[in-house]
């Protein structure tokens, strides 16, 4: 069975219910999630062997996060412990013209104060055949960036595919470095990148180009620039998201493998139960697709888009859908029929 | 006042809340419902005299079901007691492209182990002027099919109208008989049938024809075949459901009375609060319409469609709307204005 | 800072949750709200000084209402106490084709039994530069109408702008007077009126005209009639509401300042979390706009429409949005993007 | 089967949950209850035929109350409709040293504005063999007192036993009459009275005596005075309640039948889930006991005490326990064993 | 690390909240639990390697049970799949004098229809050093009894300690066999038995003796009889439970090792949050104690009693306490101080 | 009216409901509280003018805390803004033998990073006649200690009474200083100290003495030592808490005014709804008592004890009881009678 290892942060998410504003909340729903962990849950649901590596505080909140990982069938045996706290983010789910609102409270987390040298990556990655990281880890602190780079280098040395979700968050990157100071070296080793062209350019220090994703001519040229700068790159994919309102999204996708462009049909997504983590669902679908349909980039992309669409109907950070459910949607069954 | 008696199963429904998946649920909402009971609730709400006959276990769960019947003003005095358990079904309400999911746990229920001879139907049907059953009862067990046939025969002998909602459920019919082994005899006595043409054909052992419900020419021919095979048949009606997504349905209807075809205008139904039981709401509306507007099949059909649409906005199995509310919608007031 | 004083009734609102019908409810969500109070909350949220004056019973329910006012930063120091009860209204939130349903239980409230002479309006209005009332107060009782007229006269004497939301409720006006008996005198002193033309005509005793709000020619003529009858009138505005369903509204607006007509672009509002109080949100936005953009009636109207749209996404009676959020929408950001 | 008819008010009860104070509540639990109705529920649970007569408003809140009656198997066919509102009471459940707090909002209810002559008591009481009323009805308004007296006189004329729970509430009796103005005539016809001696004396206009319920000598003398003043009196019973704290009560009882005094053993009741309605549970138990054990006053009293104790463990106004559960406790099984 | 394997049934538990009765419930809290599984959770919490073996249906309800196991760190890799349904039990939590009420709906479960030969016990028990079963499995069906005996025999052959919690449930044993038909052979191989003397005697076909657990003289004699009949027996322990009320228990314990009697001090347990599973918590504590303090039977017994007491404060079936928390209580810290 | 200003930290409290453990929680109840703020709420409830000064982050969580202050009628106009986050603490409410558990996540809060010089204390304390602080502020960081000392010195210079609740928390004091390094200087200026003798000694660097609070002889000697070291000291009080279990506390108190010892009678407190903040309720009661009954130290102490007892019945951090409710208990009404 394919085994994927991801490295990143898991947070306690505290969300208001039924579209309440923060000041109205007398209770917060609690979930545990984070970009790279969410990818692991997707892959575990599809039947792969998924392991998540992070650093957690030694308290009951960290212990509760581990319980959630185990419930989701994500391996947790290489997690390290220490530091002060589990990162938190507060979420107020929008509706219609009012967008969702996130208040981060993740500074000083155990993961933000991780340092390189704490994890024996050679041992952790033994038997793995995929390594995943995202642009969030280098965004939280210098030492987290270094710890992530260390993992990337080992994965590269071992020779397993490396994927990165660029995941640019403007509210992070507060520690004095810009993405273009840090990301170019880290992205060197990546084989698969998820992100839109302008974000990739920005992280590599190239001026933005405002790409037209429907233009079959310019697109390969723009993507090729990434292939030039990232020697190991094999696949770039982009989620195309058209936001009609907080409750209505249109989701498509593009993939370039260095030779050909693939487009996924745009899907209507309405209503939106919870859109947080839908990018991670795309990433999880993409990794699954590239591993399981190695010669069928169209299906890999379509799988990622279908997974992303379904995630919008799932409450919480990660995508609680089965392989069969994604495949059903891939096969055109998206009318939401009752199964009975 | 018109009095309708229905015979069938009532179940405990356990549903996850706010679109949660089964594995996320820490609580299940509980309701009591079932196709034939749901029809009774509709009729009681419209002001008719409605009675439900079934078999219940002698425990607190069965007693709670009876309390719910009484609350809904459905007579319960001829219910018989015995057997092991109340049937259960688990419901996970979908959204958008993710359909709702039903897990049945109804085998070995008190109703599945009912036998003919336990109910004195002559007495039960005294004073009734309508009898209703559905294709679910013969689908759950041989002995339930026999008990239902017994009731049908008495109703026929007494000479009251008999309606049947075909209600085909592929997950049932597990006891060794096919619908075409059982249903033809039972349908013989029916005056009103609700179901699409192919389901009716399938139950009568006729090959499917994939009918075009917009084709005014072929439709009477296809329906007439049913009139040939079912000597007592007076009215066939079909709910036309176009599922845009789990949250958006389009509902129309067709009715054939042996002479003329009636069409109801298609209604947009979005969002869907709960679509389970919307077919039963159609059935309840149809019985009401046929009883109260005996010479106006168009209004009877329109009433059924309006009732069905409104049901999608009601949580739970049955249609908690008043006669006035259905009539308001019939009169074109479907814009959801605030009444204040 | 601008200071606005409003006079009216605050009620306990008891609402069923998740679209449940009254008979299904085992709990009622509780909020405190009322047309004029809701306007105050909007203004306090936008940074103005807002004060609400009313009469409350001396019990814990009245005390809870005051706590809510304080939480919302609405001044409450001139509230008077006495009478028997806080008015209540029950709300059942509709969906799709089923409209919301309000059951009023506000008769005999402390505000309904208020009498003129109990409030020292000269003192209350000292330092205020706006007074707001609505057509609800004169609709609840003769003595409330008199108490309101007393306040209006003092505000007029002091020379501060006076606004009135006509707010016609057919279920009120039960005490033997018609609006046209009472409102003409009260409206004499108003500088700003919110309401559609036919409601204004009706309250002034003029026959209805069924105006076409898109007709640039007839509209100024129709509005001018109001200016003729109300000597102090400066601005009339109307919310244009097209109800597709209980879950989907289209909101626009028109404003006439005696010289020119302004139109706001129609906005799609779907889904509707809670539409109660959306008219009050329009009123609050309009007062803010007229005070803060005195020379820009277009922006004042657009602000009111944006505020009204956003209110539909907020649970409860009043509009819990910030100035920045309304301005963002005004600037065209209505796609509901996640802020993170 | 014995048939008991009770006359009184049913209210909507709105209670905070988990000991929250009114100002903390974002939801109110809703129940329907009232002294005389609660007695009916007890009797229906014990298998008697119970009917409740009252006056309800013609709105959804009144309709919901009727649904609750039907669920509880209490007949409701003689209820009359009219008036403005259903009475409400707000309840904040205390704990330990903090007592529960009730805020009444029942003035102007449909029952308070009932008048004599609206109910055909001869017809209603046909077939009944018990009539029950309480001191609450004459406490709410003059016209309710008159309507109640009318019912009492018919019951007396027909010759069925009449019981009265004195139920003195100091916050009521606001309409200008004292209990001693009204109650003596009404109590004339009662055969069974529940209440402590001083309350009875107070209602009959006799000075308080602060009785010692353990004193076997003085007690018959004090009770006999009631027998002198109330010619039809057969049985007087008193709940003995020692309140250790809001969460810990001790419950006993005394009964005098004109000849002998009976004492019930004091029971420890802790914790208290909900003590509202525990007096009504006593009354319901007493009526059951007097009807079913006509020659065993000790058992009737013990039954009433056991029912009262069990009520403290039931959320809501009425006593949701079965005959078997009361009998089990009567038989000494009060240790709260798990039944499995 | 010590590894314990348990075999038995896991059920979906549906419980009313806040002491509501079944007929009041609009939601059921859902948990997954069962005697032998609960023991596994205790042991996993104390840091042992715990595995649970059972048979589950292949549906989402079964899958949810496995997710719960994983969350609780109980190994599930040898679970087999098949059969119709997951057993259910409904729980109504009592208070004070009203005991909790369990309605079983576990007939026809996947575990009840298990058969011997489906599990390769030699492989499952490889590396284990303890096997646990209980008297519930032979109580549900003949084939479950046979499947359990098969496991016991393999465990015995391998030579690992075997423990049995007698767990007599009078509502089970419905398939035509009495405990004394089945249990003697099964108990032959047990080294540790938990249960009171009379239950053990009853299961072995010996007349009841109503033992006095304070009598140091008779107790060894009565226990020795078990040692005579069960050749492998090393330890018998009994939970002593004095039920003051459903909310107040007193818990002690006795252990006999064939030579000496040990008594644990009786602990006050009030209030009771949830007493279901407290016997399993005792069993889990006892296994832990016997494994970890092999030469200190007093501490093993005290550990079991402390674990049992703490369980009464935990909602749900199993004992969510840490080793440190039990040890703290063992060390006398039972005053419920706040840790901060 | 007396005006009290308090300085300290307010936190977001996230608590599990119904005694659930952290790992069971799917929702956290949210409240805002903190030792010094809680004192303000008590005083505002008793009718005093109370103001709370702190430092808050400029985000929606900080804004929600201010809304809560306003709701509680605590003035907030001198709060300063800045820093990263609002401190959080997680609370798991125990029961019986399982104590409550607090997980602090308050490091790096806006209050912890406050610095002296940011608040104009001369202006803030203008018109105040009491200043309150606690030992928590110097425990969180060096700069918070300095900011607090600055406030204390100004209060002393102005000449208003200063109170300090010692509030020792062993999990704090992590920044390299011991209490005895910091507290002696800060306590110099205090007139009223709340805390047990050994805590006071520890903070002043004196060896512990394990005082006997019943010994009338030694007690004045031990307390006098504090008067020697703290020149401004007028009153020392100690809450006496005997913890029977997490659900049952016994609360008394001692006060020494330099001349005489006062004892309050011990009160039984069971059940405990929420004991967090009960010490702050004592402090709030003590300040009220000293201000309002300046010549009656016994009543001041009794008032503090009664307030503390009542707090245990209130959910959340602060004491939501009225002056009248405390006085009722002081007058001996602690039996928890229903008020109706």
Describe this structure in words.
The structure is a homohexamer of 340-residue chains. Chain A is an alpha/beta fold. Chain A has a single domain, classed as 3-Layer(aba) Sandwich (UDP-N-acetylmuramoyl-L-alanine:D-glutamate ligase), CATH 3.40.1190. Helix content of chain A is 34%, strand content 23%. In chain A, helix 1 packs across helix 9, helix 7 (197-204) runs parallel beside helix 8 (218-229) and helix 10 (297-311) packs across helix 11 (323-330). The radius of gyration of chain A is 19 Å and the shape is globular. The two termini of chain A are 32 Å apart. The model of chain A has no long low-confidence stretch (mean pLDDT 96). Chains in contact: A-B, A-C, A-E, A-F, B-C, B-D, B-E, C-D, C-F, D-E, D-F, E-F. The B-C interface holds B 17-18, 71, 267-273, 309-310, 312-316, 320-321, 325, 329, 334-340 and C 18-21, 23-24, 89, 94-102, 104, 169, 171, 243-248, 271, 275-276. Strand 3 of chain B pairs antiparallel with strand 3 (27-33) of chain E, so a sheet runs across the interface. Chains A, B, C, D, E, F: Belongs to the carbohydrate kinase PfkB family. Chains A, B, C, D, E, F: Pfam families: PfkB. Chains A, B, C, D, E, F: GO terms for molecular function: kinase activity. Chains A, B, C, D, E, F: This is Sugar kinase.
């Amino acid at each position: 069975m394919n085994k994927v290892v991801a490295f990143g942060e898991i947070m306690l998410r505290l969300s208001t219910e039924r579209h309440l504003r923060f000041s109205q909340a007398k209770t917060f729903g609690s979930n545990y999630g984070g970009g790279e962990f969410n990818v692991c849950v997707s892959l575990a649901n599809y039947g792969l062997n998924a392991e998540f590596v992070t650093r957690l505080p030694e308290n009951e909140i960290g212990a509760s996060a581990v319980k959630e990982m185990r419930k989701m069938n994500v391996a947790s045996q290489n997690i390290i412990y220490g530091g002060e706290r589990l990162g938190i983010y507060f979420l107020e789910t929008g509706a219609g013209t009012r967008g969702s609102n996130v208040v981060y409270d993740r500074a000083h987390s155990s993961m933000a104060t991780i340092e390189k040298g704490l994890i024996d990556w050679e041992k952790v990655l033994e038997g793995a055949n995929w390594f995943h990281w995202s642009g969030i880890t280098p965004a939280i602190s210098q030492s987290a960036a270094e710890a992530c780079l260390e993992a990337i280098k080992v994965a590269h040395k071992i020779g397993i595919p490396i994927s990165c979700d660029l995941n640019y968050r403007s509210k992070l990157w507060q520690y004095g470095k810009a993405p273009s100071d840090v990301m170019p070296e880290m992205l060197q080793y990546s084989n698969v990148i998820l992100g839109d062209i302008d974000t990739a350019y920005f992280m590599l220090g190239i001026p933005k180009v405002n790409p037209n994703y429907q233009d079959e001519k310019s697109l390969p040229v723009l993507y090729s620039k990434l292939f030039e700068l990232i020697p190991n790159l094999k696949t770039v994919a982009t989620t195309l998201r058209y936001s009609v309102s907080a409750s209505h999204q249109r989701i498509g996708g593009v993939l370039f493998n260095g030779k050909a462009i693939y487009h996924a049909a745009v899907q209507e997504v309405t209503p939106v139960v919870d859109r947080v983590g839908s990018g991670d669902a795309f990433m999880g679908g993409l990794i699954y697709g590239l591993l399981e349909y190695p010669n069928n980039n169209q299906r890999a992309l379509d799988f990622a888009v279908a997974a992303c669409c379904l995630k919008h109907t799932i409450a919480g950070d990660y995508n609680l859908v089965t392989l069969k459910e994604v495949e059903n949607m891939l096969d055109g069954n998206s009318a939401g029929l009752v199964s009975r």
